[in-house]
Every structure is written in structure tokens, then in C-alpha cells.
Amino acid sequence: MDAFSQLLQLLFAGLTVGSIYALIALGFVLTYNVTGILNLAQGEFAMLGALIAVSLVASGIPYGLALVGAIAAVSLIGGLFERLALAPARGASTATYLLITIGFSFAMRGLAIFVWGTQPYALPPFTSDRSFSLLGAVIQTQSLWAVALSVLAFGALEGAFNRTYAGKAMQACVINPVAARLVGIDPKRMALYTLAASAGLGALAGVTVAPISGASYGMGLMLGLKAFVAAVIGGLTNAPAAIAGAYLIGITEALVEGYLSSSYKDAVSFLFLLIILLYRPTGLFARAEGKRV
Amino acid sequence: MLTLNEVNTYHGHLHVLHDITFTVEPGEIFAIVGANGAGKSTLLGTIAGLYVPRRGVITFQGRSLPYGRAERIVRLGLSLVPERRQIFDDLSVRDNLFLGAYHRMRRRDPSVMDDFRQVLRLFPRLESMLDRPGGLLSGGEQQMLAIGRGLMARPKLIMLDEPSLGLAPLIVQEIFRSLVEMREAYGLTVLLVEQNVRAALSIADRAIVLERGRVALAGNARALLEDESVRRTYLGVKGDDVHRRRA
Fold first, then answer.
1. N or C: lower Cβ tally within 10 Å for chain A?
2. Is pLDDT at A112 greater than 50 in this prediction?
3. pLDDT in tens, B107-148
4. Do residues A108 and A51 touch, judged by C-beta distance below 8 A?
């Protein structure tokens, strides 16, 4: 494999993993924008999605249905999390909410060990497990799915926000919560929908990444942390910037892994986080009070 | 129609409203006037469900309100046009107006379109800027948009918090004319909070004067306009312009 093919290979690997981070980061941004809560359990939704999909497939449910079922189930878990853990704490400090989400992520990981054990599971890829070569680089079909789904999810989210009445009501909630209440929009209900949607996005990331790197109880931690860094790079409120941040991290990780050592891979995102927090705490792409959502 | 009985509201430890009692009759324009910090906005916010009264009773059409539940109170036919307009800046004028009808849109109420056209008849200026983001409108246009958004909820009683704030006198006149028109055209009851005492009292039927969270005076708006202490405190002794006194 010549140097160019190797670079291409690494770039594509970065793009794939970046897409996964992007899906989870979208959930971060969505939740933060609408509720003001930093949900550090976002990565666990990916883990739950992947493992539930594995179990549904194993139980004989048709593959496509199992994926959709897993995403729906995780959305439901996200909604329950909002109702049972976040809503009762209404008006609490940021730190309290943060602790609730961390507690929830521990609980979900514990639950996953209890149900699925610590061993990793495999999920078959969406379409075929064939790979094809492009200019000397080998690309898996599942990687294309990852990239396509992240773009699609972003497009669907933007469309839902900007073109539908419900989306505008949600925007109204973000722009001016008091005025939103005065026209009858219930911010609590919006928080519920938001958590369910964010959880669904996380689950989508989980079922997409599982055929590539497997599914296990602990996968949510790193996915969640890196997606969080991506969201921070984007300033937490800006979805396109968070996606750019996710690709940036994914590609840098892949390059570091390929050219330096895979043991430095995970350090990359935290190095990014440190640099951002030190020099650009409002995010890499921050404009002066830009539009949120 | 709307009755407050010994309503007390606190902001934390601060006792803002003291035993507020008054009744608004159907179809009237009722004004609440007073100086900055007298508790006027807190009073409207308490009625609209932004603040929870600690003591007292508020009834609307004979039923007591679900205190502190703004999103439910607007469904009962009580609409607040908040202070400083609070429009949705990034959303278009059209979106702002239709969001005003939120609780009816979910039921796909066909009368929403009628109300939309009626709001544009009341404020023809908005028609040419329907696709412009609300945040790019002038202050007067934003106030019209905020009132229009309030009307889209099809209220029985509309509350306006300082609609004249920061607007040129000509625009204030236009807005106040629209309030009178609203009452005639929709049979609306209007509860108006104003610092512009003269303008408010000249269109109102009845009014109360709020001082430090208490009802200091109550009565016929014309009579209050003639009242010696009101003239001295809010209008300047010899009818000096209120604006100059406040400057």
C-alpha cells in the first residue's frame, strides 16, 4: 500500500468514526439547546441501542425491524429518564443536573453488565459485509452507511426544526422560554421530546458503530466523551459546528493511530478539549452570539 | 370577568404585591398605572402564570386560575403581551403569529386562518414583512407583532405590559388606537399596564394606581385623570408632559 492509499484509508476511517461521534454530538447539542442540560449519559444511549439491537436480532426478529425497535426502545428510555430523573429536579443547579446524568450513565452501564455481561457482541452490517477498494484504500460498506446516516440525521433534524410547526415551537422555546410559555408551549413537554430524540440519535450511532467495532457494556463511555468534546468544539449550541468538531476529532484520531501509535489515539480528543477550554471556551467556530439550533 | 382578591406575590423574600384586590368587567379597558418598580409587571405576571401568588385568589370567569401554569392559563382565554415585546427574534413574522395560536394549531382549528387575516387587517404594516425575522423589525412593528401574537391565541381578555415602552409618540397613538379597535371588533376585554399614565387613562374605562405593590387609588379613569394627587405625582402639576418629568 503506497503512502497516498494509506492516507486515504486513514482519512476514511476517521470520517467513519467521526460520523458516529457526530450523531451522538447532535444529541448533546439538541438536549443542551432546548433544556440547558449537559447530558453526560448521551454515550450510554449508543451502548443501549447497540446491545438491544444485538438481543433483538438474536431473538429472531427481522434485522431491519430489530434496528428500528432498538432505536425506539432507547428513545423510550430517554423519555423515561427525562420524566423520572430530570423533570423532578426542575430548577436545580447545572451541577446537580450534571450529577444526575453521570449517575444515570453509571446506572445504565451497571444494568448492561447485569443483562449482557462484559463480553463483546457482534452485529451484522446493515447491508453487506463486502468491502470495495477506492484508489488503493479498502472501504467497508458499513462505513458508507455511517457517513450517510450522520449527514441524513443532520438534514432531517434541520428540516424538522426549520420547516415544521412543532420544530418552530421548539425553536421558540430555545429563543425565549418565557414568551414560549405565554403562547402555550409547555417547556416540560419539549424537554421530554428532546430527550427522546437525543436518545434515539445516540441509539442510531450505537447500531451503526456496532457492526464496525462491536457492542459491549463499556462502549458508551468513550463514544460519549469524544462526542462531548466534539460538541464543545462546536460551542455546545451549534449543530453544524459540532459535526465539524466530530469529524475533526475522528480524522485526527485516525491519523494519530496510523502514523504515531494507537495508544495515543484516545488522548487526542482530550488534548483538543484542553486547548479549546484554554483558548476558545466558546467553541472553535463561535460567532458573536450566533444562532442556536 | 377577572377578579383578584387580596393577592400577594413574593420574589424570593421580597414582598412585591400586597393584598391586591380589583375586578375587571367584561368588555372594559382597565388600566393599571404606577411608577417604575410599583409591581405592575409582577401583577400581570402573577395573573398570566409566570409567578405564583403566595396568598390570595384570582378567578377568571368564575373559576380560580391554575397559578404558575402560564402554558395552561393562555388556553383559558387570558393572553399576556409581555413587557419589552419578547418576540421570537430568529423566527419570521408569520411564524411568530402562528406560534401565538399554538394551543389551537395542535387541534388544527380552522379559525386560526381567520384570526391571522384579522390581525393583518388590524396591523396592515405586518403584511409586507411576513417573511422577515421578527428581530429585524422596528420597535413599533415588534410591538404590533407582539400584540398580534397575543391576539392569535383568541383571548377573551388580553393583558398588555407597557406597550408604549421606548416607542415614538405617533406609534404609541397608533397602538393605543388599535387597543380601542380591538375591543370594538373582537369584544375583547383589555387589561393595560402603563407608565404613560396620561395615555393609558385617556383610553381606559376604569383604572387603579399601584404604589409600592399596593392599590393606592381606584376608580373611573376620567376621574383619576382629574384627581389632584394623580395629577401631581404622575402628570405634573399643571399638566406638564409626563415624558419630561420622567427624564
1. N
2. yes
3. 677 889 999 999 999 999 999 999 999 999 999 999 999 999
4. no
For the ranges A124-133, A279-288, B66-75, B181-190, the lowest mean pLDDT is seen at: A279-288
A169 inside 8 A of chain B by CB: yes
C-alpha cell at A223: 463514544
* CATH classification of the domain holding B134: 3.40.50.300
Helix ranges, chain B (H) = 40-48, 70-73, 93-100, 102-105, 111-122, 139-152, 169-186, 197-203, 221-226, 228-230, 242-246
Q: Is B103 helix (H, G, I), strand (E, B) or coil?
A: helix
Task: Give yes or no for residue B86 having a pLDDT over 60.
Answer: yes
Cα distance from B88 to chain A (closest Cα, Å)?
6
Q: If phi over 0 gives left and psi between -120 and 50 gives alpha, with beta otherwise, what is residue B60?
A: beta
Closest Cα of chain A to B210: distance in Å? 24
Partner-chain residue, chosen from B86, B90, B152, that has the shortest CB–CB distance to A178: B86
- Cβ atoms within 10 Å of A139's Cβ, excluding its own: 18
Tell me, rounded to whole angstroms, the distance of Cα A113 from its chain centroid: 21
Predicted confidence band at A287 (pLDDT cuts at 50, 70, 90)?
A: low
So what's the pLDDT on residue A286? 66
Q: Report how far residue B234's alpha carbon sits from residue A241's, in angstroms, rounded to the nearest whole number.
A: 53
Beta carbons of B90 and A184 less than 8 Å apart: no
Question: What is the distance between the alpha carbons of residues B70 and B46, in angstroms, rounded to a whole number?
Answer: 9
Q: What is the grid cell recorded at A180?
A: 414560549
pLDDT score for A50: 97
pLDDT at position A137 over 90: no
* Interface check B95 vs A, CB under 8 A: yes
Please report which confidence band the pLDDT of residue B237 belongs to, taking 50, 70 and 90 as the band edges.
low
**In the predicted structure, residue B67 carries a pLDDT above the cut 60:** yes
**Residue A137: which residues within 8 A CB-CB, separation 6 or more?**
A5, A6, A8, A9, A12
Residue entry with cell 465539524: A244
Q: Does residue B17 carry a pLDDT above 90? A: yes
- Of B150, B88, B71, B101, give the one whose Cα is nearest residue A189: B71
Task: State mean pLDDT over A244-268.
Answer: 91
Residue ranges in B19-163 assigned as alpha helix (H): 40-48, 70-73, 93-100, 102-105, 111-122, 139-152
CA distance A131 to A91: 51
Chain B residue with the nearest C-alpha to that of A163: B95
Residue B43 φ/ψ, nearest 5 degrees: -65, -50
ipTM of this predicted structure: 0.91
Q: Does A290 touch chain B (CB under 8 A)?
A: no
Q: Write out the residue range of the structural domain in which residue B63 sits.
A: 2-246
Is B75 in CB contact (< 8 Å) with chain A?
yes
CA distance A293 to A3: 40
